[in-house]
């Protein structure tokens, strides 16, 4: 029994299977087959080639450079700074525009600070004290403004006070203004110049419209009527994120400007244009959240006639703009075209396979079609040494 099984396995390895075409006169299965063919063909033509453009070689290793320039002036009159005109050198940080720039919209100003001793701010929990032993000298105040001197300063008959510190005095005590100092920054504009290059195709492009009209950049504004102008009004950018400029200007925020390039290099280079998307990146839905807003401190230093160093401390609130660039380029290449055409031809065979399953297993006369599809033929010879053709036509299994 074991030898017979091994012999049968050995002989089956030498069998050759060839296709047999059976025409099934079944209208339902025939209609199903054509529908599957049309569906697969539509998928290949519309989705694979027209939408996804799989006949192209692509390059997503985009090389990019950003240059930004903000323009606009405004006037303020405050008790700390007096009358002052603000231009780009005052409210834009850093002064040389890059892919990230910050526009000041609100300020807390502490003028005429000098290094001496004074009382720490009452808003600092680590600075509260009841007696001098609560203020060990030489230790800095956690999240505070200076180093303890060893004295606890109390006002009048108060039991609690704050530690005396050596710091830039007077320390910052004012709260954030409820109305933005530079609310008119809403009408400022920013010029965003973007250079890109796709190294695989040695293709370079800029987002500035190729024109000889020198007045174009002086008069255009980005918008639905002029989508290829690289000059953006700050108030419009904020509104496109779903936020209100005057509200975000109070405590600051972070705005993302995304430039997306999707270039079909089979077309003219002039048809490769950028698309802009605007989003607010900080926590805009929680007004009192610690994660919302954006601010930082900086100072301007000077000396008086006696050589004593002073400074003016600024706590700046404003809008940080992050310009992000991504994209891809595609160009016809015979290799991906052949690969996808071959994959499509192979996919067409799925229709035949599925209809065979329906014929053989799911319809009422499945056994009849199964017998017609699968036929075993063994070599048989008559006296003249030729195969009897009539036997092959009339019998399902032809014995020797």
Automatic annotation (TrEMBL):
Chain segments annotated as transmembrane: 31-50, 341-363
InterPro entries to which the protein is assigned, alphabetical: P2X5_purnocptor, P2X_extracellular_dom_sf, P2X_purnocptor, P2X_receptor, P2X_RECEPTOR_CS
Keyword Ion transport appears in the UniProt entry: yes
Catalyses which reaction(s): Na(+)(in) = Na(+)(out); Ca(2+)(in) = Ca(2+)(out)
One biological process term in Gene Ontology: response to ATP
Superkingdom of origin: Eukaryota
Binding-site positions, ATP: 69-71, 189, 295-297, 315
Residues forming coiled coils: none
Membrane topology: Multi-pass membrane protein
Signal peptide span: none
Cystines in this chain: 118-169, 129-152, 135-163, 220-229, 263-272
One of the Pfam families matching this protein, by short name: P2X_receptor
Alphabetical keyword list: ATP-binding, Cell membrane, Disulfide bond, Glycoprotein, Ion channel, Ion transport, Ligand-gated ion channel, Membrane, Nucleotide-binding, Receptor, Transmembrane, Transmembrane helix, Transport
GO-annotated cellular components: plasma membrane; postsynapse
Subcellular location: Cell membrane; Membrane
GO MF term set: ATP binding; extracellularly ATP-gated monoatomic cation channel activity; purinergic nucleotide receptor activity
KW Transmembrane helix (keyword) present: yes
Role description: Receptor for ATP that acts as a ligand-gated ion channel.
Subunit structure: Functional P2XRs are organized as homomeric and heteromeric trimers. Homotrimer. Forms heterotrimer with P2RX1.
Family listed: Belongs to the P2X receptor family.
Entry protein name: P2X purinoceptor
Species for this entry: Balaenoptera acutorostrata (Common minke whale)
Highest classification ranks of the organism: Eukaryota, Metazoa, Chordata, Craniata, Vertebrata
């Amino acid at each position: 029994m074991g030898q017979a099984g091994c012999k049968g396995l050995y002989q089956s390895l030498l069998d050759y299977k060839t296709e047999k075409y059976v025409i099934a006169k079944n209208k339902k299965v025939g209609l199903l087959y054509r529908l599957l063919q049309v569906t697969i063909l539509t998928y290949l033509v519309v989705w694979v080639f027209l939408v996804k453009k799989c006949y192209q070689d692509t390059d997503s290793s985009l090389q990019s450079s950003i240059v930004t320039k903000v323009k606009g002036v405004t006037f303020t009159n405050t008790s700390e700074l007096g009358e002052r005109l603000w231009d780009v050198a005052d409210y834009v940080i850093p002064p040389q525009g890059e892919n990230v720039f910050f526009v000041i919209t609100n300020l807390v100003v502490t003028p005429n600070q000098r290094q001496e001793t004074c009382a720490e701010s009452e808003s600092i929990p680590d600075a509260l004290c009841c007696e001098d032993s609560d203020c060990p000298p030489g230790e800095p105040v956690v999240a505070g403004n200076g180093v303890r001197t060893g004295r606890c300063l109390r006002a009048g008959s108060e039991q609690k006070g704050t530690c005396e510190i050596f710091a830039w005095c007077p320390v910052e005590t004012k709260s954030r203004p409820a109305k933005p100092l530079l609310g008119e920054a809403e009408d400022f504009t920013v010029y965003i110049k973007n250079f890109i290059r796709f190294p695989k195709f040695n293709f370079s492009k800029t987002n500035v419209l190729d024109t000889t009209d020198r007045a174009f950049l002086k008069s255009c504004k980005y918008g639905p009527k002029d989508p290829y102008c690289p000059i953006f009004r700050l108030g419009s950018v904020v509104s496109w994120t779903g936020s209100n400029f005057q509200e975000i200007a109070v405590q600051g925020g972070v705005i993302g400007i995304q430039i997306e390039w999707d270039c079909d290099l089979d077309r003219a280079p002039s048809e490769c244009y950028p698309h802009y998307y605007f989003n607010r990146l900080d926590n805009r839905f929680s007004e009192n959240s610690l994660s919302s807003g954006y601010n930082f401190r900086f100072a301007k230093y000077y000396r008086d006639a006696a050589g004593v160093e002073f400074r003016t401390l600024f706590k700046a609130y404003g809008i940080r703009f992050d310009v992000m660039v991504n994209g891809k380029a595609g160009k016809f290449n015979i290799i991906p075209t052949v690969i996808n055409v071959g994959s499509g031809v192979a996919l067409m065979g799925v229709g035949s396979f599925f209809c065979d399953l329906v014929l053989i297993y799911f319809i009422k006369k499945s056994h009849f079609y199964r017998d017609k599809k699968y036929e075993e033929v063994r070599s048989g010879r008559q006296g003249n040494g030729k195969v009897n053709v009539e036997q092959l036509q009339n019998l399902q299994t032809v014995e020797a």
